[in-house]
Amino acid sequence: MVTVKFFAQVREIAGVDSLTISLPQPPTIAALRTQLMRQSAALNDALQGNVLMAHNQTLCNGETKLNEHDEVAFFPPVTGG
Amino acid sequence: MVTVKFFAQVREIAGVDSLTISLPQPPTIAALRTQLMRQSAALNDALQGNVLMAHNQTLCNGETKLNEHDEVAFFPPVTGG
Amino acid sequence: MVFARVQTNDFSQQALYDELCGGAVSQGAGAIVTFTGLVRDFNAQGGIQGIELEYYPGMTESALNALLTQASQRFDIVDAGIIHRVGKLANHAQIVWVGTASQHREQAFLAATFIMDMLKQSVPIWKKEWQGDQATWVVAKTNDDKAAMRWLSENQDNACD
Amino acid sequence: MVFARVQTNDFSQQALYDELCGGAVSQGAGAIVTFTGLVRDFNAQGGIQGIELEYYPGMTESALNALLTQASQRFDIVDAGIIHRVGKLANHAQIVWVGTASQHREQAFLAATFIMDMLKQSVPIWKKEWQGDQATWVVAKTNDDKAAMRWLSENQDNACD
Fold first, then answer.
1. B40-73 as b/e, with b when 16 or more CB fall inside 10 Å?
2. Among C3, C75, C111, D14, which residue's Cβ finds the most Cβ atoms within 10 Å?
3. A13 touches C: beta carbon within 8 Å
C-alpha cells in the first residue's frame, strides 16, 4: 500500500484529502497517477494538467519508483511567499 | 569671504575645523585650493592627493564657481555605511 | 544555526532580528538583510478580504530547511532564517519573513533574494484570496518561475555578473 | 513619506519597521526589505575596539534625502528610510539601517541594494577604527566604488539584466 495526499485545488477537486491504494504495476508515480485518474471522474479532473508530484516529501517526476509504505502527494504549482 | 570646512583626515592634518578666506581670483574651488595649500605646510599636506570637494553642501569639481558667502568643504573619500 | 518555522500565529520583527543576530555577530556578521511579505488588499480583479494559506505538514518544513542549506552553500552567509505563516490572514498581515546575516552586504542581499525566489517556486504552500464569501486559488506567476530560473541557470554565485 | 536621519543614539528594528510600514501598506506595499550594518570586531590587521564616525552636519542629511529621492525615481517603491548613527560605537553596535517598501519584492531588494551602494560612495560620513588607544581612519574600498559604478553605468532599472 502507498499513502496518497492531495493539496489545494487538487484536493478540492478530488474531494478527498488522502487515501491509500495498493502499489501500481509498474510501481511508478506515473502509473499510480493513471490508475487514480481511472478511478473516478473527480480524481480524473483533479490530476489533469499541470500537477506537481512528491515522493516521500520530495518533489519528483513520473519515472520515480514506488515501494510499499511510501507517501505520494499531488498538488498544483506552489504560490506561497 | 567664503567659509571653508575640513573633515576627517583632512581636518586632522590641516589642524583646523573651518576658516574663512576672501574670494580667490579666479573665483573657483581649484584656485581656492591652490591658495590654501600655499598658506601653510599643514594645509598643503591636508589638501594633497585624493580630496573630495563640496560647494554649498553638494559634491563638485575644481571648475565650480564661487560667490561671496559660499560654503566650501574638503574631505577624503567617504567610508560610511 | 539556521532556523525555519511554519506557524499560524504572527511574528515579531524585533524577536526574529534578535534571533538571527544572536549567533551571527560572534561569527563576524556585519550585514543583516530581512525581507517581509505582507498581504496586499487587492488583486488584478479588485479588492480582497484576506487570504488563506495551505501547506503540506512535514514536507513544507523540510523544503524550507533544504532551501536554507542551499543558500548557505551557495553564498557566504553565517546565518539565515525563514518564518512562513499559514491559515487565514487578514489584509496587511505579515505572511513571510526571511533574514540573512553575512560579513558582506552583497552576499546578504543575494542570499535573501535567492531564498525568496526559490521559496516562491519550490516550497509547498498554496494561497487563496477571499472576495466576499468566495475564495479563489491564486495561480502561480510566470514571473516567479523566471526569477527562480535565473538562479538555476547560473554557475556563478552572483546573479549580477 | 521617505525619512532620513543622522543620530548618535541607537535605533529599534521594530520602531523603524513600523515607521516604514505605517504609510506603505495603504499604498499597496507587499514587500519590505531592510538592511542593517553592524560594527564588526576585527579588520585586516586584527581585533578592533569599536569605531568612531564623523559627518558633515547639513550636507549628510541632504545627501541621504537626495539618495532617497533618486531611489524613488529609479525604482517602483512606495516608501523608504535611512538611519545612520555617528559618534563612538562599540563592537557589534548597529551603524546603519535602510528600509524599502514596494508592491514587488524585486524592486524592494534592488532599491535597498542601490541605496547602500550609493551611500557608501557619496554620503559624507567617515569612519575610524580603534585599536587600543590608537584610532585609524578607514580607507575607502575599491569594491565599494565598483558597487556604486555598477548603478551609474546602467540605463536599466535592474542591476541583473
1. eeebeebbeeeebbbbbbebbeeebebeeebbbb
2. C111
3. no
Beta bridge partners of D54: D126
> Buried b vs exposed e over C41-72: b needs ≥16 C-beta within 10 Å?
beeeeeebebbebbbbeebbbbbbeebbebbb
Q: Which amino acid appears at position D126 of this protein?
A: W
Give how many domains chain B has, as a whole number: 1
CA–CA gap between residue A37 and residue C7 (Å, rounded): 34
Residue A80 lies in a domain: no
| B81 inside domain | no
| Domains defined for chain C, CATH in brackets | 3-151 (3.90.1170.40)
Helix (H, G, I), strand (E, B) or coil at C7: strand
The per-residue pLDDT for range B1-30, each reduced to its tens digit, is 999 999 999 999 999 999 999 999 999 999
Host domain of residue A62: 2-75
Can you read off the three cell numbers belonging to residue C117? 525566489
pLDDT in tens, D74-116: 999 999 999 999 999 999 999 999 999 999 999 999 999 999 9
CATH of residue A70 = 3.10.20.30
- Contact yes or no for C120 and A9 at CB 8 A: no
Query: Is the bond into A26 cis (omega within 30 degrees of 0)?
Result: yes
Which residues in chain C (82-101) have CB-CB distances under 8 A to chain D? 92
Do B and A have ≥3 inter-chain CB pairs under 8 A? Answer: no
